[in-house]
Amino acid sequence: MADQPIAKDPEKEKRKIKSVSKMKEIMTTYYIEAKTARETGKKVAWITSGGPVEFLIAMDVIPVYPENHGAMVGASKMGVDLCEKAEEMGYSRDLCSYARSDIACSVTNGGPIGGLPKPDFLVCCNNICGTVLKWYEVAARYYNVPLFILDTPFIHTEMSEASRKYVIAQTYEYIDFLEKQCGKKMDFDRMHEVSKLAVQGLRLWQEVLDTAAHKPAPMTAFDAFFHLALIVTLRGTKIAVDYYKQLRDEMNQRITDGIAMVPNEKYRLLWDNLPVWYRTKWLSDKFASHNACLVGDTYTSAWSGVMDLIDEDNFIETGAVAYSSVYINVSLDIMLETLKKLIKKYDVDGLVMHSNRSCKPYSLGQYDLQKLVMKELKLPTLIIEADMVDARSFSESQIETRIDAFMETLKS
Amino acid sequence: MEALDKLKAVAQNPYAYASNLKQVTDKPVVGNFCSYTPEELIVAAGGIPFRLFGTKEDISMADAHLQAYCCSLVRGGLEDALKGNLSFLDGTVFPHTCDSIQRLSDIWRLNAGFPFHIDVVLPVKLNTESARIYMIDVLKTFRSDLESALHVSVTEEKIRQSVKLYNRLREILGEIYEMRCNDPDSISAADLYHVIKASMVMDRDELLELLTALRDDLKKNLKDSTLNKKKRIILSGGICNHPDIYTALEESGAEIIWDDLCTGTRCFEGEIAETVDPIEAIADRYMTRMVCPAKHLSATARGENLVRLVKERDASGVIFMFLKFCDPHAFDYPYLKKFLDDAGIPNILLEVEEQLPSDAQLKTRFETFVDMIR
Ligand code: SF4
Ligand code: SF4
What CA–CA distance (Å, rounded) separates A302 from A235? Predict the structure, then answer.
């Protein structure tokens, strides 16, 4: 029996995204390169997901993303163990689980890839949260390496002129910092190339996401979570551009061929906040069992949502403004506007909000957003209390009951 | 000690104080949550900066806006606002600190309904020239925001006067702290806590009179510090709104003789230069004062500072005290602890939710801790 190949369900096979294997290949190569940087004489920098990576690429530095690593930890279900290790080291359970698991990986060389490569320096942009500032301070002490902070003031109403000046000034300081760390000058022609590739990558990524506006959707938000890795880690490279072209074409082909990710897609939903990495499959099956498809989300579009602000011929100055304006560096009112646009674009029947106890800047305020969405758009909403990496905060029975009840109201 | 009694009365019921004040003066009362509130400019605009500490009542209304994994200061502050307990406020100022306060600002603006709301998005790093320039810009914007909110003109002269007043207030608070550090019997820690608390909510002119009188009273009765045989402890953390812990600690044989608290030394440390542009001078105080953990000076600044404080103040232990769900403090705790451990300084952590642990529990923990100290 064991030797006989298991017959594959052709229906399921048809729906699998073919590009996935390519994506895995790219990520593996990327991590091998990062982990062997020492041997190849390249510098490694840790950088936050919202940080301006383009400058690193232009300087030939390998960027490493602890948050992407955190997502891998979550997806490989190693989160609880690592989080507990961090707690033993004195880090409170109430802290972001990306930070906790990453700190534990550093010390134990644990996790899915045996720890991240040691950084030569650190680049922290606080446009996503205040947590990264503290987390990178931890890393700066642990590895005893220089830390550059790109401080992007929070936008409550609109970006002030003072803030614009401040962020642009810091961008030049960032370049100085990199020149010092790398012992060479910035090649601005190369930087221009990289910026163009970055913007191109962002556009393509947005095109990929946009395909889910089609009914039925050729992909779901769960697929977007997975494919997001490249726009984060390899933004500004040709690899990312080529890959997203391939992925976009595949999605468009699926639309032509009438392939839906969720068979019998009947209800279209929007997801808010980070994924529940260790439960994406369960959640997607759960929603699919109700013929519901999560067609879009606020998280994966955060990277491309601001690309219109970028002028690739003046990346240094316009990029700084764009980086400051990302989805969670803005007030609830501005977030509401983005939410409304997404709700309209994907023509959804409901909003599912992940109240993620790890991520306060994303989650606090969700109750108000929920009320506003219900009031202004009369859209049904559901809140799920969980955590993106720490499975101890996930109560399956409770969440199942809530999803079932929510879907019943949608159906009625 | 009439002055002390008055200060205590204010601290024990700040809301009643503010409501009464509204009857007799038309000075606007301006709520805030943080020691990075540029109070000098509020006073220059004729206002009274009023520090908010959250509620000790049960949370019911704030639950509709904030998840349970949010610190009790943020939840309790919103609760008070929604319940109408803060109806004496004319407006609120939110300096940027942590992620929770940042979102509270939005929620507050959308729901609390006070006449004005100002965000002061200060830089997060305080160690570069561009951050300093940005800080000055932000303070200037704050000044004009106050002008339009309060319909006043905040002249340079008024700012200079306010800066002078603040320098006086901070100097006297510093003197009182020093006196208590040298002679812990001069004023009890719980009383000093009340003094500090009152100093964050009172009309600052009235405060100056009371503080001056208190300082003079205390000076008369100073004794030899060696008479106090209790262990000398430093309290480190964010806000402390629990006078009981001082008493519990005293009963366990120790004294808080100094602190590293947002509601403590961070209120009065650092003088503002009076000879240069006053707004730049206010910015420079923030750029040089020891940071709170939501701001960045260097990766090790707070640890080095704490160890230095212990030595400088001849203390023999540290109690960390911060609110549950407070990210900035929780992130710093392991490293601060390590710095202390490496320097052989005993320390314990007290994580506080809305309520303190029971008296008995607290005493047992403190007694064990005091025994650890040689
Ligand atoms: S999950 Fe939230 S708190 Fe954690 S690093 Fe990301 S943005 Fe920051
Ligand atoms: S106690 Fe901590 S989490 Fe709460 S408002 Fe203060 S800094 Fe923020």
Answer: 14
**Measured between alpha carbons, how far is A164 from B141 in angstroms, rounded to an integer?**
14
Separation of alpha carbons B163 and A9, rounded Å: 76
Sheet of A62-64, strands arranged across? A62-64, A44-47, A121-125, A147-150
Structural domain of residue A216, as residue ranges?
A: 18-411
In eight-state DSSP terms, residue B296 is B
Decide if B275 touches A, using CB distance below 8 A.
no
Per the structure, how many domains does chain A have? 1
> Can you list the alpha helix ranges (DSSP code H) found in chain B?
2-12, 14-24, 39-44, 72-83, 99-111, 129-150, 156-182, 189-199, 204-220, 244-251, 265-268, 278-288, 301-312, 327-342, 359-372
pTM of full prediction above 0.90: yes
For residue B18, what is the DSSP state?
Answer: H
Q: Walk along chain A (412 residues) and give the pLDDT tens digit of each residue.
A: 445 666 778 888 888 999 999 999 999 999 999 999 989 999 999 999 989 999 999 999 999 999 999 999 999 999 999 999 999 999 999 999 999 999 999 999 989 998 899 999 999 999 999 999 999 999 999 999 999 999 999 999 889 999 999 999 999 999 999 999 999 999 999 999 999 999 999 999 999 999 999 999 999 999 999 999 999 889 999 999 999 999 999 999 999 999 999 999 999 999 999 999 999 999 999 999 999 999 999 999 877 778 889 998 899 899 988 999 999 999 999 999 999 999 999 999 999 999 999 999 999 999 999 999 999 999 999 999 999 999 999 999 999 999 999 999 999 8
Q: Is residue A407 part of a domain?
A: yes
Is residue A13 a part of any domain in this protein?
A: no
Nearest CA to ligand 1 atom 8: A129
Ligand 2 contacts CB of residue B263 (under 6 A)? no
Question: Is A364–B324 a contact, with Cβ atoms under 8 angstroms apart?
Answer: no
Cβ-based contacts of A100 with chain B (< 8 Å): none
Question: Helix or strand or coil: residue B315?
Answer: coil
As a whole number of angstroms, the distance between CA A407 and CA A48 comes to 36
A6 inside domain: no
Q: Which ligand sits nearest to residue B240's alpha carbon?
A: 2
Q: Alpha helices, DSSP H only, in A289-331? A: 315-324
Q: Using most ligand atoms within 8 A of CB, pick from A128, A326, A355 the residue to mutate for ligand 1.
A: A128
Q: Do residues A97 and A75 make contact, with C-beta atoms less than 8 angstroms apart?
A: no
Residue among B234, B238, B245, B239 at smallest CA distance from B357: B245
Which residues of chain B does A147 touch, with a Cβ-Cβ cutoff of 8 Å?
A: 299
Q: In this structure, is residue A1 part of a structural domain?
A: no
Give every CB contact of residue A21 below 8 A, 6+ residues apart in sequence: none
Under an 8 A CB cutoff, do A364 and B103 touch?
A: yes
CB contact under 8 A, A365 and B103: yes
Report CB contact under 8 Å: B300, A153: no
Beta-carbon contacts of A338 under 8 Å, excluding residues fewer than 6 positions away, are A298, A305, A327
Domain containing A245 — which CATH number? 3.40.50.11900
Q: Report the distance separating Cα B260 and Cα A156, nearest Å.
A: 30
Q: In whole angstroms, how far apart are CA A282 and each of A18, A212, A286, A291?
A: 21, 20, 6, 14
Q: How far apart are the C-alpha atoms of B56 and B77, rounded to whole Å? A: 10
| Residue position matching structure tokens 């009840």 | A405
Which residue among A96, A103, A225 is best mutated to probe the pocket of ligand 1, counting the most ligand atoms within 8 A of its Cβ? A96
pLDDT tens string B263-280: 899 999 999 999 999 999
Residues B51, A143: Cα–Cα separation, whole Å: 39
Are B109 and A152 contacting, i.e. CB atoms less than 8 angstroms apart? no
- Name the residue among B101, B96, B97 with its Cα closest to residue B78: B101
- Measured CA to CA, the distance from residue B308 to residue B296 in angstroms comes to 18
- Edge-first strand order for the sheet with B347-352 is B254-261, B231-237, B317-323, B347-352
